[in-house]
Design a protein that fits this description.
Growth Hormone, Chain: A, 470 residues, mainly alpha
């Protein structure tokens, strides 16, 4: 009995560490972008693909994660995911140019995408039901800590060692994780396995990739308008074909019937458009601070702390606000506050003090965290047992997709404003960044039209633990 309890605790720490390195790597790169760009001989304004491909790869792999774990076993898949993550990290550190780094980030993203869903599945199959909520709450903590220390750690490693170490630190952690997973994790393949919807998956993945590439095509690949138009049309056609296919398939990846739940539909679409704007901030802010304000990587990382701390601090207030005011009032009001907090960077000047920017980031972090938690609980709270798994998976996919597309949109907008205002003088660059912040803030503001469709009575009671859903 004591041995089983020990194994359960080790499994909890193992899954938590896997989640930690995955979330850490989503943010640790942001403050290192100028240093990486200088080392690879490219412009820091052209480095968004390093962030985008990692998030997009995770969005593509997540829908298949459950079936992969059932097919090959949770232990084997978790070990394989950690191994892929370590190999990708090693390739990232060894990259000699931007193309090599992008390809290595794809490998890293393939491993990272499986760590949380497969780890969560391992807990579901190993931890008693009455202890599962507590176990998931424990595993969720590193998901808050990773983004908190990622920018600071990335900046510190760049200054004290080199940018290569933001990837090399994953290697010992991964090797230890693989060793412990081999000993303490269980999970044999299922004897009876449902058929995987390979056609639907191919259509969905192709649609996500081509549509995301269309947003980033001119900036990263030099594709002109005709190519961008073709990518957009192919992406939309593929996504449309998926939903036609799903309506005619007995067991699709995501059934169109899932959208008969109004709160899920509004929560997913609101997530997409709200994150499309706000997810650009962790990319834009460190770049703005280093390129225009003369901050070092470590200083830029420290400046991101108020945003993360405020995000964690406000979480306990979220269920109270929703219970008192309802989802409609909270989301419509808070969406405007998030958008205005982003637009406040319109007034940024090169001479602004650090505490002025800290206050802006503090407010943005608080409002943004409230937004994420409210949107996520809204999307999941009314799911029936039939759609719990697919609804949760779709939400994770939409979040990763929106984060990647948000960075692409921000980079494209920054390029357009740089071309418009010029980049020869610091004031021109500041004007380009300020305009980009406003543009992305307006994108977030647009999602308020989606939340406007909520009914007043939606979400009077909060059923879910907000700490699990960000």
């Amino acid at each position: 009995m004591a041995s089983d309890e020990k194994n359960s605790k080790i499994l909890l720490w193992l899954v938590a560490c896997g989640f930690f390195v995955q979330t850490l790597d989503s943010t640790i790169v942001n403050t290192a972008i100028p240093a990486i760009a200088s080392s690879l001989g490219t412009s820091p304004l052209k480095m968004q693909s390093v962030v985008v491909v990692y998030l997009l790869t995770m969005a593509m792999i997540i829908p298949a994660s459950g079936w992969i774990a059932d097919k090959f076993g949770t232990r084997q898949v978790y070990i394989g995911a950690l191994s892929l993550f370590v190999i990708g990290s090693l390739f990232c550190a060894a990259s000699q140019n931007l193309t090599h780094l992008v390809l290595a980030r794809i490998v890293q993203g393939m491993g990272g995408a499986l760590l949380l869903p497969v780890g969560r599945l391992a807990l579901l199959r190993s931890v008693p039901r009455d202890e599962f909520l507590q176990a998931i709450s424990f595993v969720a903590i590193p998901g808050l800590i990773g983004p908190l220390i990622g920018p600071v750690l990335g900046g510190w490693l760049v200054e004290t060692a080199s940018w290569h170490w933001i990837f090399l630190i994953n290697i010992p952690v991964g090797i230890i994780g693989v060793s412990f997973a081999a000993i303490y994790m269980k999970g044999d393949p299922l004897s009876e396995l449902s058929k995987f919807d390979i056609t639907g998956y191919a259509l969905l993945a192709f649609g996500m990739v081509t549509f995301s590439m269309a947003l980033d095509a001119s900036y990263s690949f030099g594709i002109q308008r005709a190519g961008i138009l073709l990518l957009t049309i192919f992406g939309l056609a593929s996504l449309t074909a998926y939903w036609i296919h799903a309506a005619r398939t007995p067991r699709p990846l995501f059934s169109p019937k899932i959208f008969s739940i109004p709160t899920l539909s509004i929560g997913l679409l609101g997530n997409l458009f709200s994150r499309l704007g706000s997810s650009s901030m962790p990319f834009l802010v460190p770049l703005f601070l280093q390129v225009n304000m003369g901050y070092s990587p470590f200083q830029a990382g420290l400046m991101m702390l108020p945003m993360a701390i405020a995000g964690i601090a406000i979480k306990r207030l979220v269920p109270i606000l929703i219970y008192k005011l309802g989802y409609r009032v909270v989301l419509m009001t808070n969406t405007l506050l998030v958008g205005f907090a982003m637009c406040s960077f319109l007034f940024s000047q090169s001479g602004h003090t650090w505490w002025t920017i800290s206050i802006q980031l503090l407010f943005f972090g608080a409002f943004n965290s409230l937004q994420f938690t409210a949107m996520n609980t809204l999307a999941l709270k009314d799911l029936t047992e039939e759609y719990t798994s697919s609804g949760n998976t779709m939400l994770s996919m939409v979040q990763m997709l929106a984060m990647g597309m948000g960075v692409s949109c921000a980079a494209t907008a920054l390029e357009a404003f740089t071309d418009l205002f010029g980049s020869n003088h610091s004031e021109q660059m500041i004007l380009a960044f300020r305009s980009t912040f406003v543009c992305m803030g307006l994108v977030t503001l647009s999602s308020s039209f989606i939340f406007w469709q909520l009914k007043k009575e939606d979400g009077k009671i909060v059923h879910l633990n907000e700490h699990l859903l960000d």
